[in-house]
Amino acid sequence: QVQLVESGGGLVQAGSSLRLSCAASGGTFSSHVLGWFRQIPGKEREFVAAIGWSGDSTYGADSVKGRFTISRDNAKNTVYLQMNRLKPEDTAVYYCAATPPYSSGSVYSYEYDYWGQGTQVTVSS
């Protein structure tokens, strides 16, 4: 069983940067594909980015390409989301998630078995 705890959210102005962190405990961290999703009230959870087991493969949603970077440190059991040039439309609760061990990555939330509690990111214009 993997437990995930996000941190690093906050209120920032448009154009600013934030780095989200997600610390994991339990399980074998390096065996999970990790992803970041976001959700605003009344909408479905939206894929943001994902990273493979060793960190050498990443992919992101078109809406964040060139602005957000996902990375992981398997020695620290932590995954990061560096968010640059933030826009008001990036405002959401951001969740980190992990797939079952040794699964393929996915953009679909139902492929992820483990979820953090979420961290709020608010970008003012």
How does this model look, in words?
The protein is an all-beta fold. Helices cover 0% and strands 47% of the residues. The protein is built from no helices and eleven strands. A hairpin with a 6-residue loop joins strand 5 and strand 6. The mean pLDDT is 95.
Distance, first to last CA: 40 Å
Q: From the helix content, strand content and strand pairing, which structural class follows?
A: mainly beta
Q: Give the radius of gyration.
A: 13 Å
Count of strand segments: 11
Features:
single chain; 125 residues; mainly beta; 7-stranded mixed sheet; globular
Q: Could you outline the blueprint of secondary structure elements for this entry?
A:
Elements: E1 3-7, E2 10-13, E3 18-25, E4 34-39, E5 46-51, E6 58-60, E7 68-73, E8 78-83, E9 92-98, E10 114-115, E11 119-124
Parallel strand pairs: 2-11
Antiparallel strand pairs: 1-3, 3-8, 4-5, 4-9, 5-6, 7-8, 9-10, 9-11
Write a short abstract of this structure.
The chain has strands spanning 3-7, 10-13, 18-25, 34-39, 46-51, 58-60, 68-73, 78-83, 92-98, 114-115, 119-124. The protein has 125 residues and is mostly beta strands.
